[in-house]
Amino acid sequence: MKKMPNRQGEDFGFTLLEMILVLMLFAGASFVLLIKIPLNFENERLALATTQLLAEIRDARQAALAENNWYSVKFYHQTDHHYQIFKQGTRVKDVYFKDGIQFLGSPQDLEFNASGRSVGSTIILTTPSGKRRSVIVAPVGMRIREHD
Fold first, then answer.
1. What is the CATH number of the domain that holds 131?
2. How would you classify residue 95: left for phi > 0, otherwise alpha for psi between -120 and 50, otherwise beta?
3. Phi and psi, residue 29, nearest 5°
4. What gap in Å lies between CA 101 and CA 99, rounded to an integer?
5. Do residues 106 and 88 make contact, with C-beta atoms less than 8 angstroms apart?
């Protein structure tokens, strides 16, 4: 593009090369965002599912202690990857994972007795791209925590 002088004799406007360079920078930035955003959403869904599972297990343990009952959390990994919470054998809640989040392997079911104790277990959740997060239930001290 040919620059034209203005009244003071200065050039104004952009050359074609400058415009192409700016468009290439915008296209490159857009491409990077389009690649990163879906992975970030997947990581966020995994973090949300892990945090929800952690909270549900802690709530079941606390309810067992408070109500002097037994609670259990059963994990279904064969088909639709979900878990159920039971109070003295009666189903209280079903939780289904969304968007490809699933159990890695076959987690051991948890059962909290009236004193809030259970055998330990590690429940690993994974995404289709292979990212993993764990919920660990320690049998000694009954510490329940998340791990990347």
1. 3.55.40.10
2. beta
3. -65, -40
4. 6
5. no
Task: Please tell me the distance from the alpha carbon of residue 124 to that of residue 121, in angstroms, as a whole number.
Answer: 10
CA–CA separation, 73 vs 77, rounded Å?
Answer: 13
Distance CA 54, CA 87 (A): 17
Domain that holds residue 96: 15-147
In a domain, 87, yes or no: yes
In a domain, 5, yes or no: no
Residue with tokens 């203005």: 6
**pLDDT tens digit at each of 148 positions of the chain:** 555 555 565 667 788 888 899 999 988 888 877 776 666 788 888 999 999 999 999 999 999 999 999 999 999 988 788 999 999 999 999 999 887 899 998 888 999 998 888 888 999 999 988 999 999 998 877 788 888 7
| H or E segment to which residue 22 belongs | helix 16-67
Provide the number of structural domains found in the chain: 1
- Under DSSP, the state recorded for 50 is H
Please give the model's pTM, rounded to 2 decimal places: 0.72
| 109 touches 75 (CB < 8 A) | yes
CA angle at 141 for the pair 50 and 116, rounded to the nearest 5°: 75
